[in-house]
Amino acid sequence: MSDTEKPSIKIEEAKDKVIGAIAETMDLYGVTPAAGNLYATMYFKDQMTLDEMRTELGMSKPSMSTSVRRLQEIEMVKKTFTRGSRKHTYAAEKNFFRSFMAFYCQMWEREAKMNLEAIEEAQEDFIDVIKDSSSTPDIVANAKKYYDQLEESKTYYHWLNDLVDSIRSGKIFEFLPKDPHD
Amino acid sequence: MSDTEKPSIKIEEAKDKVIGAIAETMDLYGVTPAAGNLYATMYFKDQMTLDEMRTELGMSKPSMSTSVRRLQEIEMVKKTFTRGSRKHTYAAEKNFFRSFMAFYCQMWEREAKMNLEAIEEAQEDFIDVIKDSSSTPDIVANAKKYYDQLEESKTYYHWLNDLVDSIRSGKIFEFLPKDPHD
DNA sequence: AACTTTATTAAGAATTTATTTAACGTTTTA
DNA sequence: TAAAACGTTAAATAAATTCTTAATAAAGTT
């Protein structure tokens, strides 16, 4: 059955298998199904214009416009220059290592920054409570407990920042080579 | 102003700052706002029953039930045994390293597995096309191009699996210590 | 400078997702 | 064994996203 297929159709079907898998796992990156499909489609194209995207996915142009913008934000798609064409052209980042680095570094930095800021503020408050003469021993004990819990958790956020640094600098690939020599 | 606050109120406000930050960054873990809030709330509690959660967050019991289940799935909440109580009790995982490991290993393994399976199938198809005598040179060249692109991308998924292994085994902490000796 | 072409923004429609109320099943206790 | 306490499932409602059509803005061409 599949042996009798036209080769050109078989190529499309093979691509679709991969497109489906990529799109399905793109939820990890917090993008909509439309954006996931778009990226996966672009993965097999050199570059695309908004109109080509619309035709290929059968969706509206503004939808493509916002999807492609979101994909640009997480650096999975880059704008490309095409001289002679007035249409904007976009290309998918095909190196998954680069996508991985851009996305997770961005997210982890945000997580560490937000939480560390909140922790610092909260810890100051807990210190105030501990120093406050109107605090009962019970309350002081509580404030200390929370202070210590937060202090402990800072280790994690610092580690997350270290992880980001080692990914950005590429040092992590010394520890975990891209191409392990079997 | 804030100096004149009652210490017990100040403690609650300090906790709320951290709760807000945690809940806000929980979108990274693909959970609903309710689940994010719930986890962040539980982070400052020893353990909680569904009724306590409902009271604390002012939400319905089924909502707590489904939120807590989702949090269990990504191993951010564990069921705890409390003898003498008919109510189920749950405790938040307070070690962020463990949450990190459980969540990302699970997700990355899924990503690698799904995509590698699709890639293997697609590559077989491309080989068929290349071997097919009815394929034009143009089509063969195309199939080869896609085959190579997929072959290249496998490096990434293998690396992702290696990363998961090194996290699961704890080897990554030899490279990136939790507690860097300044 | 007016006219095209293209992309983006805004507003509205539709779908999806999240949440709640109500009903059900199960376990425990009296 | 009946009643009560819990948790979960199902159906319905509410809320938030996402998508589309229409309008606007921006850039390029004649």
TrEMBL record, chains A, B:
Domain of life: Bacteria
UniProt keywords, alphabetically: DNA-binding, Transcription, Transcription regulation
Coiled-coil region(s): none
One Gene Ontology term of the molecular function aspect: DNA binding
InterPro entries the UniProt entry points to: HTH-GbsR_regulator (IPR052362), MJ1563 (IPR026282), WH-like_DNA-bd_sf (IPR036388), WH_DNA-bd_sf (IPR036390)
Family matches, as PANTHER family: HTH-TYPE TRANSCRIPTIONAL REGULATOR MJ1563-RELATED
Family: Belongs to the GbsR family.
Protein name: HTH-type transcriptional regulator
